Amino acid sequence: MNTSPPTARRATVTTDPLPPPRFAFETATWKEVGYLLLNLPMVIVGFVYVVTMLSVGLGLAVTVIGLPLLAAGLAGCRLLGKVERARARDLLGVRVEEPTPLPRGRMGFLRWLWAALKDPVGWRHALYFAARLPWGIVTFVITLTSLFVAWPILPFLSRGMTTVDRAMVRGLLQPSDELERRIAELESDRGVVVDTAAADLRRIERDLHDGAQARLVALAMDLGLAKEKLLEDPEAAAKMVGDAHGEVKIALQELRDLARGIHPAILTDRGLDAALSSVATRCTVPVSVTVDLRARPAEAIEGIAYFTVSELLQNVSKHSRARSASVDVWRADDRLMIQVRDDGQGGADTSGGTGMAGLAERLGSVDGLFVVNSPVGGPTVVTAELPWRDRDFRKTAQPRR
Q: pTM of the entire structure?
């Protein structure tokens, strides 16, 4: 019997060093930490800027330069707010819309100054930077301390603190309500209207210069020559006067066509039914017109409806290869509805060169809609909506005698 003690097993001892500790944080956590550490320098810059701007602007308000400096300072607050929105978007994933820009264009210095001084966006941005200084100091100290002392709880702290930051950004740096976003859309639409009006004026000027004006100048010269030949060669003078008479008729027709392009008399006198029927007769394909309106809309809406149908029918003539087309106009609640159909080859859209994009912009500028349904092979259905505005009869009302 073996009484010797059992052989003890030797433990294997490794002498390799342990791997260094790693911060097993998600990318989102590191972005939040970076945002919190940047809070302090950003709020210091913003706070100093706002205090300096208000002190100088309000302190010099009794002088000529005080209020302009304050207005420029509020505009600068907008720029700082834009930087903060970008920082929140990149590091916190907070996406907020840009606020309404300040009015631009030829509005005059005093009007711009007043708009800048009462700008709610600039004042909200100033409040944002003034109120964030204590919070920026607190978040910077807590984040920096937790990063080196209590980093296991840092993800929870960063998430809680950035939740407050997200609320501040959404509360003070985004458009306050739907009204501001609507104002921004109207500012853009106003630019479209101005550009369209300028283009129409240039077209009218070009048509007058190249058409009726040039013809009338030539007519005056011909009549001058006829006057000189009146005694020397009456027959030649009579022939020149006859030619001039023909030129007068052509010039008058050109002026009528130009006036019809500005605002046709038939539309003013008889309304959309008669005016659209007249336009349909100039289309190269048969067009049926149905107008179901018990009253006439405002002159501006009526004019836009007329020119919309006119241009759509021109597209039918030039591009559709259709055999027939139809125009329907009716009122639905507070909207004027227009629908133009054709049985052509289709393929029309608002990105082509057929003027569809211009029509969409023009209708959009008056809060209208423009929808094109035109599959390849046809048919094409274009639906336009315009806001219904009642005609103001007070303009044409005759005074009582």
A: 0.46
Residue 335 region by backbone torsions, left for phi larger than 0, else alpha for psi between -120 and 50, else beta:
beta
Q: Which one-letter DSSP state was computed for residue 18? A: P
User: Which amino acid, 329?
Assistant: V
Report DSSP state, residue 376.
T
- Domains along the chain with CATH numbers: 27-176 (no CATH), 189-262 (1.20.5), 269-391 (3.30.565.10)
**Cα-based angle 312, 185, 373 (whole degrees, multiple of 5):** 30
**CA–CA distance, 92 with 29 (Å, rounded to integer):** 9
- The answer to whether the beta carbons of residues 300 and 336 sit under 8 Å apart is no
Paired with 337 in beta bridges are 330, 385
Rounded to whole angstroms, how far apart are CA atoms 194 and 103? 14
Give the Cα separation of 26 and 159 in Å (integer). Answer: 12
Contact between 85 and 169 (Cβ < 8 Å):
yes
**11 Rama class: left (phi>0) / alpha (psi -120 to 50) / beta:** beta
Residue 327: partners with Cβ closer than 8 Å, 6 or more residues away:
276, 280, 287, 288, 289, 290, 309, 313, 338, 339, 340
Which helix H or strand E contains 382, and what residues bound it?
strand 380-387
Query: Over the chain (401 residues), what is each successive 10-residue block's mean pLDDT?
Result: 46 45 68 91 92 87 85 90 91 84 66 82 89 90 86 86 90 70 56 56 64 71 77 78 76 65 74 89 91 88 87 87 92 92 86 70 81 89 89 46 35
Closest CA to 272 of 338, 186, 317, 346: 338
